[in-house]
């Protein structure tokens, strides 16, 4: 069946479900200048160490934080292109010839040597020309004629017979295209040194009973658009057309391919590299601050090998499309990851750098999700469709094939941070596993058909050639043209020549019969020898059958044991699933209880805060109420004291007043005048006045008055103070104490006899 980069998913427990990790290698390029500071050191053939350059920030302990990273193999600064190819790319080409797929990336920052590793330089061919050289060294003599295999637009191959292929070759040769590669053209001296590989390399165990065809294509992914670098666009000087981007399609086997991509059939290393070089000139490069010729796109060079078995006679290609095997090797030169502040990019360069970094970030994300799914058994969706780069190669990671990654690093100190990110990506990629490719199915025809046909004299075409040689050995025929009716020599000469030819032919027939008898005898001997060998082989085969039957019984026993173990494993898996489900339920219940406790705790805190606020508010309220009541009580007491003071003043005034007559109750008008006059300028109070909390005033008496009284000689009492004599010689009026006291006590508040009574006329404040 047709072999493509992706296979249908296999069932669990199948032998084809074996997986291998992605092979990640590291190559350290030499420094451009010897005096440059180095931040990467090769510790061993599998480990490198990164240490921050001088002036870089320190870690918490104050020491430099050095990190080590391990790879499948590390290539130092003195590694040659041949050593790198033998370890990394040689197995991929060998798998390609045996019908298996491969993918090779070069990854690193700008200026780390990715393009040099992939393409090479004059005198030092890179991985790409070496892969082509090994491929054509292995299948050179087994290639099919041009146009026997023909690509279509459905990511598959059609097969033509020799006659149709010959007609198409003649048609193409009649209308030559100067840009079509040809093995007869001289090699371009611009890249002649790159493909001049001195070391001969060839794959082992090539299927000699098949014919091969090699097709190459070259695309670039620029700003997340796919462009065909081999597409020939007619040049229009008036209105040139920009290149059209291509779309990704999915074929019937769910494999991704670039629709409408040009595939060129090549027959030699020179032709293939000429096609590559033609596309390389169209690739987008630009001058940045970090690299004079910085790749601004990801390039993908695909080598597609088509195999088809020979028929039972070993003469022609088997005309069955189902027997075609297609394998593919993709060589990817990724654009360098870079920080825009270092590249000093602006405008288009800035947009290019953003798209490059975005596609590389998507590649990292896909690797991380794949690792997580394979490590923890999750089933997260891998975001292949976020970038054309990852979408194109998702078949390798979801299907089967061998994937290799070469991490190129520049040890200079300025690239320390970028190199650190590259190392972390490589560390993640090493943990991703891809399905191991399977061997192709055998077509069922007898092996050795090609050389067995050559041994018996070649195909029918060679027999015809031998017949032509035999005919040329006959004597030439004389001229048969008769110009004269009396010509009697032409016919006799012709008859004589024909008789000689007939005699020679008869002799050859006799010789042929003799040789056929001899050959039959030899063939009989050969048959006897074959029969003896068959008997011997039959005996050996019976012995082997016994061994095989014993091994089959052992295999059956092991299969039964395996089934028992698988059943136990399935039970354990189900038990584990139940336990995990219980664990998840308990965890969810625990989380729910924790959430409830947190909710209750938060409610309690809110309630405490609310109660604290209510207590504080109530406390402040009662403090104010107490202050108000105390102030009111103080005011009440002050009022009482003041009333008493006024009474005492009235009493004093009664005692010291010299009038003898009983005072008459004054009228309200006179009391009002006196009250008004006393309120305007009251008599000084012998005491201190203080403000109270309620807003009133309190009086504290500071003097003490003493009232003296003498016993009267008569019935009437006299005051201790004798009133002075009046000018008219009469004694001052006096009144007894009882009368005056009774008058003072019986006066009601508001009688306006003095300033104090006016104050007590105000209504008292009610108690709260």
TrEMBL record:
GO cellular component: kinesin complex; microtubule; nucleus
Subcellular location: Cytoplasm, Cytoskeleton
Sequence similarity: Belongs to the TRAFAC class myosin-kinesin ATPase superfamily. Kinesin family.
GO biological process: microtubule-based movement; mitotic spindle midzone assembly
InterPro entries listed in its UniProt record: Kif23_Arf-bd, Kif23_Arf-bd_sf, Kinesin-like_fam, Kinesin_motor_CS, Kinesin_motor_dom, Kinesin_motor_dom_sf, P-loop_NTPase
UniProt key word Ubl conjugation: no
Keyword Nucleotide-binding among record annotations: yes
GO molecular function: ATP binding; ATP hydrolysis activity; microtubule binding; microtubule motor activity
Residue spans of biased composition, Basic and acidic residues class: 658-676
Residues bound to ATP: 108-115
Domain of life of the source: Eukaryota
Disordered: region residues: 657-736, 749-768
Organism of this sequence: Monodon monoceros (Narwhal)
Swiss-Prot/TrEMBL keywords: ATP-binding, Coiled coil, Cytoplasm, Cytoskeleton, Microtubule, Motor protein, Nucleotide-binding
TM region(s), chain numbering: none
Protein name per UniProt: Kinesin-like protein
Pfam families attached to this UniProt entry: Kinesin, MKLP1_Arf_bdg
Coiled coil: 541-610
Signal peptide boundaries: none
Domain Kinesin motor: 21-432
Major location (coarse): cytoplasm
């Amino acid at each position: 069946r047709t072999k493509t980069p992706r296979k249908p998913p296999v069932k669990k427990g199948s032998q084809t479900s074996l997986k291998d990790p992605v092979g990640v290698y590291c190559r350290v390029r030499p420094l451009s200048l010897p005096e440059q500071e180095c931040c990467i050191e090769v510790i061993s053939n599998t480990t490198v160490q990164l240490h921050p350059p001088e002036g870089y920030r320190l870690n918490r302990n104050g020491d430099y934080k050095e990190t080590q990273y391990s790879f499948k193999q590390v290539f130092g600064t003195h590694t040659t292109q041949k050593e790198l190819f033998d370890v990394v790319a040689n197995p991929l080409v060998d798998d390609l010839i045996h019908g298996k797929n491969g993918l090779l990336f070069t990854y690193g920052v700008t200026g780390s040597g990715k393009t040099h590793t992939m393409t090479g330089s004059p005198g030092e061919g890179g991985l790409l020309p070496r892969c082509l050289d090994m491929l054509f060294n292995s299948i050179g003599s087994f290639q099919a004629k041009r146009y026997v295999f023909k690509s279509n637009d459905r990511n598959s191959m059609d097969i033509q017979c020799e006659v149709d292929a010959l007609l198409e070759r003649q048609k193409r040769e009649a209308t030559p295209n100067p840009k079509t590669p040809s093995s007869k053209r001289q090699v371009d001296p611009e890249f002649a040194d790159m493909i001049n590989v001195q070391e001969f390399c060839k794959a082992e165990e090539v299927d000699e009973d098949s014919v091969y065809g090699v097709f190459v294509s070259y695309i670039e992914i620029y700003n997340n658009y796919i462009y065909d670098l081999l597409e020939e666009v007619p040049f229009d000087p008036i209105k040139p057309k920009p290149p059209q981007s291509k779309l990704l399609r999915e074929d019937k086997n769910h494999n991704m391919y670039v629709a409408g991509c040009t595939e060129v059939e090549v027959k030699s290393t020179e032709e293939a590299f000429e096609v590559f070089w033609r596309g390389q000139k169209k690739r987008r490069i630009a001058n940045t601050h970090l690299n004079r010729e910085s790749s601004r796109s990801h390039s993908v060079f695909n080598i597609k090998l088509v195999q088809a078995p020979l028929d039972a006679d070993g003469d022609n290609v088997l005309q069955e499309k189902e027997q075609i095997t297609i394998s593919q090797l993709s060589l990817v030169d990724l654009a360098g990851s870079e920080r825009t502040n270092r590249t000093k990019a602006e405008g288009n360069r800035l947009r290019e750098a953003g798209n490059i970094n975005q596609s590389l970030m998507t590649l990292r994300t896909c690797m991380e999700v794949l690792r997580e799914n394979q490590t923890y058994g999750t089933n997260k969706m891998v975001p292949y469709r976020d970038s054309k780069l990852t979408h194109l190669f998702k078949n390798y990671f979801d299907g089967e094939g061998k994937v290799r990654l070469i991490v190129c690093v520049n040890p200079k100190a300025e690239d320390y941070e970028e190199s650190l990110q590259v190392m972390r990506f490589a560390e993640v990629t090493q943990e991703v596993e891809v399905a191991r490719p399977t061997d192709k199915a055998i077509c069922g025809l007898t092996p050795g058909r090609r050389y067995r046909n050559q041994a018996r004299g070649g195909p029918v075409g060679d027999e015809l050639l031998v017949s032509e040689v035999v005919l040329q050995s006959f004597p030439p025929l004389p001229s048969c043209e008769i110009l004269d009716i009396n010509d009697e020599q032409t016919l006799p000469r012709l008859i004589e020549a024909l008789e000689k030819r007939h005699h020679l032919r008869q002799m050859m027939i006799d010789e042929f019969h003799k040789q056929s008898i001899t050959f039959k005898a030899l063939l009989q001997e050969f048959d006897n020898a074959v029969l003896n060998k068959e008997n011997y082989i039959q005996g050996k085969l019976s012995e082997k059958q016994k061994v095989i039957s014993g091994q089959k019984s052992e295999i059956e026993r092991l299969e039964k044991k395996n089934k028992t173990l698988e059943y136990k494993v399935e039970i354990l898996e189900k038990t584990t699933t139940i336990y995990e489900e219980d664990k998840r339920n308990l965890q969810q219940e625990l989380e729910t209880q924790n959430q409830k406790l947190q909710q209750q705790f938060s409610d309690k805190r809110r309630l405490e805060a609310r109660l604290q606020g209510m207590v504080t508010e109530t406390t402040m309220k009662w403090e104010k109420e107490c202050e108000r009541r105390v102030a009111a009580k103080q005011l009440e007491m002050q009022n009482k004291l003041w009333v008493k003071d006024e009474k005492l003043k009235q009493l004093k005034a009664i005692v010291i007043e010299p009038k003898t007559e009983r005072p008459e109750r004054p009228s309200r008008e006179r009391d009002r005048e006196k009250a008004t006059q006393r309120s305007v300028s009251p008599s000084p109070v012998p005491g201190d006045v203080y403000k109270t909390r309620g807003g009133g005033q309190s009086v504290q008496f500071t003097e003490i008055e003493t009232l003296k009284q003498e016993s009267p000689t008569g019935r009437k009492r006299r005051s201790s103070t004798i009133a002075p004599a009046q000018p008219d010689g009469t004694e001052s009026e006096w009144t007894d104490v009882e009368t005056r006291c009774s008058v003072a006590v019986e006066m009601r508040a508001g009688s306006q006899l003095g300033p104090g009574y006016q104050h007590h006329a105000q209504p008292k404040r009610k108690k709260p």
